[in-house]
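Running this now, will post back.
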Amino acid sequence: MTNRPNFPDDEPVIGAPPKGFPTERLDAGPVIGSTGRPVPPRPVVTPRRVGPPPLPEVTPEIDYYDNYDEGAPTRNPWFYAFLAAVAVIGAALVFVFVRSIDIGGNNDEPNTATVQPAALQAVMIAPRDGDRVKAGDTVEFVVRIASSQAITRVELLIDNKAVAEGKAVEAPGATPVTTPVLAKLYDATLTTRLAERGDHTAVVRVTAGAATISTATVRLVVFEEPTDPRITARVVATASVRSGPAETWPEVTRLQPGAEVRLVARTRDSEWLQIDDSAGERWIRRNAVSESGSLSTLPIRDVTATPPPTATATPPTTPTPSTANLPDFSPSDARFVFADRGRAALRVTIKNDGADFSGPLVIEAVTSPGSLLVSPLVFDINLRTGRVATVDFEVTGALPDRADVTVRVDPENAIEESNEDNNTVGFTGVRAPADPPEISISSATIVDGQINVTVTNLGGQLAPTEVSVVVEVGTNQSQSKRVLSLDTDESAHFQVPVPAAGTATVRVLLNGATAATGTVQIPGTATATATTAATTTGTPTP
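Update: finished.
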């Protein structure tokens, strides 16, 4: 565009600033493409129109430049609200972008980003709790793992010590599971050798990301096979051999005392033992045999009858013309006593009213309340006609003031008797024994070639008993003994000749059992001053 005549000098030209922003001209006037230094515009106050702009008046001639001096058209208020919303959203996006850079960067501000916790679970599939493992064998530990993160470590701990590490691989064909988040399934197998015999604990510890978890503890029993894997046993009493480990199984045969058998298995409580027999399974009671090795090396067999076995009647014994040569056992007494250094025991008396008998005899004692005894037991007994024999059952539980006791002799009728109806007797209200005596050596002095020993009873009453005081120096020995009874805190004095010079051992015996010991120094002459012995006390056998 060029300047045309008859137009004002301030006509806008191409490249010039818009109207309202006058410039300080650098040349004679505005030209196409010219520039100038902007000067501040004069403030102009323009009243704001309300409503739409007025329509222009229609005239026959419209001058193109008539409205050139009018201000810019007024915008709708919603237009400015829209611009403000766009600005706010843009600022928010910029803030999020910058914040994400700060979180991932290496600046000094703390990282406050929240991390979703990992889902991690682990279960040991094999071996199972209580499994038996042969010492030296390689054991495989199989673990199934569910994790939402990559697994970084899998380790095996035996007795809380790390012994092996493994690698977790994604389980083939396994469907992911949903825990707190979606987790994948993995398998891990770890191996180790267990050489030390005994009980051991095993756990597998799994680490994924920052999370660590352990499986439940599994207890393993490691056993060693003996050099000779066979365990032989000798039958000590006539015993029934059954086809299963219970009295309800049929009896297939009987074994006599002295018979040798080979043991191949046991029940979980070791009450029944399986013997080697080519005819089939054969079981015998534990108390009927004396084994040559430890039963713990035998495998455990849990036998379940399907269908349940039915007891078969024992074939009737062929009557004998005479019973004069058969024994006849019956319990005659049961009482609680203190025996074998003060341990409580149930002393049972058995009477034989038949022919002489010598050999093993099974005796069973049951108490109420229970858990006092371990029964039945086998005793080697020599019983002549009309005589009695006593046997002691050790009491394993707390002894009550009174208890009911049932005694059974030969409970399986393994020994033929002239009368089988009197083998079981019940005893009611059996009292607990009084406190046992407790013997102590109070003093030992040397006077005129004699050792004066004072013996004191610190426990319960001592019934009339043979009491001996023995002094030993090397192979030299001297003693003094007499029958006496001692109440609680009562003392007795003994004079024993000095056997020799040197350190002497002083022993107090009740009915031949040592109840207390001490020492005394005997000088070269027997007229030395008194010396008190250092003593230890014990509980005698009444």
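The CA atoms of residues 359 and 381 lie 6 Å apart. More later if anyone needs it.
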